[in-house]
Gamma-interferon-inducible lysosomal thiol reductase
Amino acid sequence: MASVHQAFFFFLLSSSFFLPFSSTWATQKVSLALYYEALCPFCSRFIVFSLSKIFSDGLISIVDLRLVPYGNAMIVPNSTISCQHGPSECFLNTVEACAINSWPDVQRHFSFIYCVENLVLANKYNDWESCFQKTRLDPHPLVNCYNSGHGQQGRLKHQFLEL
């Protein structure tokens, strides 16, 4: 499955090279949005083994990456979010949404999300707080976002904006 994702991602990046050249185009980045689920094994593998390469090989300089940790979730009648892989996934989706909100620089929030998703692959996602130390990011902005409910509101907003 990863090879399909890699091929699709390569197509997204390489297809822009066939567009007519202009000075405006030369300064624009390729927009890439990834809607994913925190506990989806396919999503985790893609983030850790494929998407991370755009940082190590320098492609991030031409990519406007937008991560949306929402995936296959639904709003149920009591206005709460139900996630495909259960409450732990909803929790981690919100944590990752708060990471994006807390550290808007893609390099910073991706390092945290990469760490969490790597723990998912090792089936140690309950140790997600260790990612603060591993990435040397201050936990306070993320914890404040989570406790304020802002992470949940942001996820609900994505659901309605994308319809």
